[in-house]
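Weekly sync notes, structure subgroup
Attendees: PM, AL, DS (notes)

Item 1: joint prediction request from the bench team. They want all two components modeled as one assembly rather than separately. Inputs as received:
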Amino acid sequence: MRAADAFAKTKAEGRAALVGYLPAGFPTLADSIKAIDIMIDHGADIIELGLPYSDPVMDGPAIQRAADRALAAGFRTRQVFEVAEAVAGRVPIFVMTYWNLVERYGVDAFARDFAASGGAGLITPDLIPDEAEEWLAASDAHELDRVFLVAPSSTDERIAATVAACRGFVYAQSVMGVTGARAATSAAAPKLVERTRAHTELPIGVGLGVRDGDQAAEVASYGDAVIVGSAIVGCYLETDDVPSGHQRLAELTADLAEGVRR
Amino acid sequence: MPQPDVSGHWGEFGGRFVPEALIAALEELDIAHAKALEDPEFQAEFDRLLREYGNLPSPLYRAERLSEEAGVEIWLKREDLNHTGAHKVRNVLGQALLTKRMGKTRVIAETGAGQHGVATATAAAYFGFDCTVYMGEEDTRRQALNVARMRLLGAEVVPVTTGSRTLKDAMNEALREWVATVDHTHYLIGSVGGPHPFPRLVRDYCRGIGDEARAQLLERTGRLPDVVAACVGGGSNAMGAFTAFIDDDVKLYGFEAGGEGVETGRTAAAINSGGIGVLHGARTYVLQDEDGQTKESHSISAGLDYPAVGPEHAHLAATGRAVYEAVTDAEAMDALEKLARTEGIICAIESAHAVAGALRLAPELDPDSIVLVNLSGRGDKDMGTVVDYFGFDKGDQQ
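Output from the run, pasted for the record:
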């Protein structure tokens, strides 16, 4: 499944999509698969699998800690394909990854293996289209979506060039700052979505900061997808009791899913 | 002089591997730097600052007794005599002047042992900027004296508790902070690494090392050196020393921190034992595992203890214009002691890698060869390490 399949459904239902993020291998490899199934069961429309990395410069403390835990437990890049394969079929599965991991695996090989495991595409937070020649070719060859980011500081020229390189959807980084749950979402977000929409027909996902159904509803009023990461990771960070984490995740996802349907 | 392409690539190296949110600030910086380079007023102010405040130009010194032992003529570029004790004052004054020009009022920096942090705090005090320095928690304990210096100079020191709690994590944290504060804050990066235009910009502010040494040596000997030797962590002092000679028939040698030896894996020699990858915004040589996760670096010298290298060095290595060799902890400490005992100069352990490299090269050179060694910093900060290494606190001095 590709992003377009999910957005066709949410558009028909007149609502925004819910995108749930979790690092592969967190809280454990098996439990990351279980957690993703829980998210899909409770209303997530698209899944973003994080690829744990030693130097995640765009992530706040919650996702950093989760990635550290997965790496400390021995997570390997190739295992992201196992996770993707286990959860693919019901909703589009994206991988969100820092670029060095893909480059090290081999850009074309990564695209090939991810496509073979049923993946939809990549979200690349530290790869701008200007540096993405090899990835543009590989994503074409293996029919994968490619999602680049736009930010409040992006010029209109850069937004135009970035959305032209995107396929599937566009990721709007709604605040100038790292990932993490915030009490209030950004006032800059609606403006960024509006500026981006002037340059593309693609759906626009809004990331960074959403932690509950109310905030999801607010973001859903202007964005085409509500992306939730740190709050989801938080379900497992404060407890060693994974089943209770699963329970919290089920409740959170249901709340968020209700939010995007208001 | 070689320049990167318009988007900051030297061959396959360099570029911008950063979140889109930072691109606007990097563009602004690129334009501001290009304008400053061509602005006589900026250059005059930079020169004045270096001269009156930085104690520059630094002397070029013919090391008689060391030359005798080595069997070639060794000249030392005495960057250890600069204000704040290293070449780094050039970079921080240049970037601080640029910060002022861009109308920003705050600087942030990463630091390992604290030398770049102290230099940044110094420039911030001089210009009246707010200053926050990110430093691995472990380093704040080991380098308490430098933490005290930064605080005395008015900087806030933030211990970084994420990842491996070392320099690379301090750099991650500075990048994170920069994304959130980029409208009024300049990231005063400490070496020729990071996304374009930082590698070029830092080189341009450090190139006075080589420009001065070239003129000084020509005046004193009528010749160019046969070899230029410098230590390489991120590589700012080496780029500063190399740039003036890059179009000349002069051999350029960079000496990386071999740590316990590149074959042991406990090393910081990114070119000699890393692979090509992306770290902190640039494609370069990176110490990394099979998956591309960054490996922890090891060196007795905190200033070289970094798992990557500036992209222009990667390019010079790949094209063969410069040669990069690894110098072990033990070789560097031997050279540090030899320099102290033959010349009465206690240099930084970083710089001792360059001295050690020059001494290694000497037997293969003609006896009338001139070797220019960049003595990038002084050794006061390293006395704790020196005491431990040589056992000077155990009464068993050799």
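Discussion: The longest strand of chain B covers residues 251-259.
Action: AL to compare against the crosslinking data before next sync.
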